[in-house]
Amino acid sequence: MGVTTWDYFVSFRGSRLSIVVLKGVGGIGGLDRIGEMNEEECEECGIGGDILEEIMSHVPLVDLASANTVSSSWRSAVAASLLRLNTPKPWLIIHSQSTRSPSAVATIAYDPRSNIWMELQRPSSSIHTNNNSNGHYFSLLRSSHSSLLYMLSPSKFAFSMDPLHLNWQHVPPPIAWRPDPVVAAVGNHIMVAGSGGCSGIPDDSTPPLEIYDTTTGTWEWCDSMPTELMESAAATWLTVAADPHKMCVYVSVKRSGVTYWFDPRRKTWGGPYKVRGGNDDDDDEVFFSAIGCGGKGKGMIVVGLRGEAEEVRRVVMWKLVGIMDEEEEACGEAEGESGYMPSICLNVMGDFVFLNNPLEGREVIMCELKQLGECRWGSLTVTAAALDDHHYHSHFTKLVLSCSNVTLPHLERAFNPPSTPLLKITYPNCNG
């Protein structure tokens, strides 16, 4: 009899598997109560093979890091469950930072695979840097195209692109200081562009685009952005998406949808292109759009707001299979009236799209892109005690959202480094 006959919760602590049967006659391996078993006890109860794989598919990814070290049979069960039964899914990571004290940062993450919220605690000494610089946060966190976190001041620049953001690169700042820059990373290049009061260049000059080469550790000036982008040359008015497979960066005007692409290797621009789909005669015009790239073969995701800022009536989404050919597919839409929402924050990774109103951080809309154009919409309510403890409601708190493909090897390296663990993950009181 298969274990899916019952509803149950499983977790892993140390080398013991904890199983809670919620309903059903009998239970897994004859257990109908809360039980904790090690490897030998599981074998005695007949839990192995397909049954053990099924159980592992219900264990949170964080706990599988420990289960993977028990024995070769458990390691095989973990691998099989992740490959066939319950594959890893992108995490939504929310950083809550005090604007008065940048070093005060609380971080929680949502794992769609396990449907749980987690608190991520990083000792300040565990933040790895490429030099002997202090690992503390020195300015406000910023995010770009879902996976890039960075900090920028007139004298410092630091960025992190690893899934758990444990490794930070501290490099010299760009030559020109931009208060609201457009930043993107693709391959070995970090692009910084924008105007809005640049310092470090002549007043009558057009602000150049700067590229940092992570292999040579040097900055290089390039031609400025196209005129249509320069008219809105700040992160407040532009949205970016990085395509690591085509090795290019897309930059789009949020209000008009006019989009260009930039190749950091050839230092050339292309465009403009149309990225907004739908019928131009629609009564509800798209007044705002944001773009994102899910990964290889996923195309570009475009999310638009229809109606007006004071009364958003629909959130629409398109997938551009080939931006150069302007080939589009309708993904879906979420209807319903909303309050004041002049913009929307978009994070895309793989088949998952996360949306939220920057003015209301408590709710995040999640969409999983299925086959044949199907969209599975859902809503996440952020009720984590971790953020409440760090003055989540304070007017002096900034929320920064990112998205990461966290895998079992990433967690194993964070939990079992050569010296002190780099990360501690707990389950706050928000998974009731």
UniProtKB/TrEMBL annotation:
Pfam families, A to Z: F-box
Endpoints of the signal sequence: none
Residues covered by the F-box domain: 50-79
InterPro entries (alphabetical): F-box-like_dom_sf, F-box/kelch-repeat_ARATH, F-box_dom, Kelch-typ_b-propeller
SUPFAM superfamilies membership: F-box domain, Kelch motif
Coiled-coil region: none
CDD domains recorded: F-box_SF
PANTHER family: F-BOX DOMAIN-CONTAINING PROTEIN (PTHR24414:SF44), F-BOX/KELCH-REPEAT PROTEIN SKIP4 (PTHR24414)
Name of the protein in question: F-box domain-containing protein
Organism of provenance: Citrullus colocynthis (colocynth)
